[in-house]
Amino acid sequence: MEISLGFIIAFILILFPGLIIRRLFYYGEFSKQFSGGLSLIKLIAVASIPGVINLVVIFYLYDNLISHINLEEIINTFKDINNPERHIETTGSKPINETINESILPFFSFLYTSSIIIGLFSGRLIRITRIDTSFKLLRFKNYWFYAFSGELTNFKRMKHMKEANKKHLFTVADILIESNGETSLYSGVVVDYELKEDNCQILNKVILQHAERFKKVGNNRERVRIPGNLFVVD
Questions:
Q1: Beta bridge mates, 188
Q2: Which end of the chain is more exposed for a tag (fewer CB within 10 A), N or C?
């Protein structure tokens, strides 16, 4: 497969910074949303959106606050990188190593450093301010995080469930499992969970503390304590 110079330039200026922002934006409980089952082409497509916005903003800031930058000069430098005549000083032209050291490296350093900072702080700022619970557009796809952390009552449609002067401490879950045609019901305090690798909206494992199982005795079901500190429900 032949890769064009235009794609390389677009990857360096737009796609790779966009991937950095997206990777760092989805942190911790939301890290699996980075790819979220997307194909490579779709991942590149969604990464290009923050990449373009980032390039425009960073170019404006760098050009106006730090030093004048000429994108045409950067692109022409990439075109001439294998041209031996550009490696030495000739009449009317600047040697390529001087262009790289004076213009390209400082701009690229600023571009990638800014991408890292934006990615690191944007996702965390959303969670610190909790604006994702108020605006669906900013909400992460990990629905289970909001359910297990008790933040569902901050959602607009569920605020009627919120009780004044009460604070969420932990979540108790009743989990019904079907195996070999039989069903088993478990209960316990949710202390951790795992999501499917290719779908961040589907649970893979739930880890319970103070776990119990329901045992059928006659026509009734009784709670039976499961020995151990933690119980993993697959």
A1: 173
A2: N
